[in-house]
Design goal:
This protein has 507 residues and is an alpha/beta fold. The protein has 15 helices and 13 strands.
Amino acid sequence: MMQVFEWVEMQFSANPWLIWLCIAIAIAAITFAIWAIRRHRRIQRASDIHTRLHAHKTGGLEFSHIASFARKPSSKRTEPETSLEMRVRDLEMKLRRDLSTSSPPSNQMPSGACMASPACMMTPDFSERVDDDASEDDDEIDSVNSDELEEQNVRIDENEEKEDVDYKIQTVYFGTNRVRDKPEEPLALRHYSAKRGDSLIIGKSEVTIPKTVHKYGEVERPRTALFGTVQIQRERRDKHFTEYRTIKLDEADFMSETAALAQEAESYQNTAFVFIHGFRVTMQNAIYRAAQMACDLNFDGPTYAYSWPAVGRVKSYVTDLDSALLAVPHLDAFLDMIARTKGVKRIHLVSHSMGNVLLTHLFLRAETLLSQRKPKVLDQLILAAPDIDRDVFSTVAEHMVKAASKVTLYASANDKALNASKRLRDKNERAGSVPPEGPVVASEVDTIDVSAVSTDLFGLNHSDYAEDRTLIDDLGRLIKTGAPILERFPTIETVKTSKGEYYRIKA
């Protein structure tokens, strides 16, 4: 280390201009960081405005909450209000005046009732008045200069029908034991934190998927900076995966809606698709990935995702591991609920990376709800780059084979989440890795080396690999037909080892 410092000192002494270059680079980096963070905050605030207006117009938000649209004045604030903020403040005042001067029919509400309550908004004359005002207010917001809309990320056009816009809706039914932050805000996926809850929460999220720009295997999201920590591009439904609406459901509504989907499906009748995410994945990213896979597979049955409280940072690996173990009972209850759903006769489950830790302990624990069900409760069980010890997998594989009609393991030498795990474990090989001697092999488990196409499809890694159709095409054929690997992949390479044989996809 001393030699490095001496070399640097020598270079600065011989070339004084290097000092000024380093100072200039540091100033530029700090300036960019400040710009990116401020832009991220503006985008986040504009997204909150959009969410609140949508909730207000659909009757899900009391008017008293809308007052927080405009940034509250502060004695510490030095910059002037932007024109958008003035517009929003004027809009809030206009809506307040309209609400205070409007009266619902006397037979609908008692005298003195809160004029801002959702019940008041639902009265016939009053709701029509609010809807008309909301349309006018949309026009007023849309009249803001287009350059400013780009800056503030406000694009409100709620009067469009879902079928007529350049995106489609994919519904994902979720289960989680994450704790919800900001309970006073309209429900959104980003409000589900990495804090561990002690109960199972279920609901559904409607995800918009762009029709024209969506690429196979990709989750299109706005550009970010500072290692993905701040968003510097506004979110657009015709270009990005976005959250249209998230609703918390009770068990009866959850099961009735998914039962109807399972029974009405044409291509995948009586079939459920379940996704469990891996290490360093947020709730929002998990739902987007499940929606992307269902869309690309043209899956028309109920799509599920279980999101356990992963932190979303590499340095939180040990914390994520503990969170995965604590989520096992909640995953057990979630899968049992799916198995009890009327019309669901087949369950295909895809688990990536550390998500397989939950499955491993679920299969190894006695007296779980899953173990009390009949054998082969799962149809296709797909383990994508499982982040579990190779020796542990050899033990749990026999339990997996008993619980599923077919078990497939996708192993990869370049899975990003798995490589991060291996670095933190003194380079001990995992069940989903591919060392020089080959991937793990177990009886009645199809092990496929997919290093040539990667497993980025199952994470949220943006790369050229994710656009390769090979892996998702095989996944589609597997859950559609259940055909053996050699029928799905006639050109796949068969590799024989002393412990058995596995398969390798050629580059």
